[in-house]
Amino acid sequence: MDTRLMKHYEAELLYLRDMGAEFAEAYPKIAGRLG
């Protein structure tokens, strides 16, 4: 796989994890229902 694509993928994955954690902190009940 192209290393540029892999770096972009990893950056996006990190962003989603960070935003998911932020969402879970702000809305714990809803986040719990999402899995």
Description:
89% of the residues lie in helices and 0% in strands. The relative contact order is 0.11. It has one domain. α1 crosses α2. It is mainly α. It contains two helices and no strands.
Could you write a compact summary of the structure shown?
With 35 residues, the protein is mostly helical.
Which properties best describe this structure?
2 helices
Question: Which helices and strands occur, and which strands form pairs?
Answer:
Elements: H1 3-26, H2 28-34
Helix pairs in contact: 1-2
Largest sheet descriptor: none
> Uncertain segments of ≥5 residues (pLDDT<50)?
none
Structural class: mainly alpha
Q: Roughly what is the average pLDDT, rounded to an integer?
A: 96
Q: How many domains? A: 1
The N- to C-terminal Cα distance equals 30 Å
DSSP helical segment count: 2
- Overall shape: elongated
Order of helices and strands: HH
**Helix proportion of residues, in percent?**
over 70%
Radius of gyration: 13 Å
Strand portion? under 5%
Number of beta strands: 0
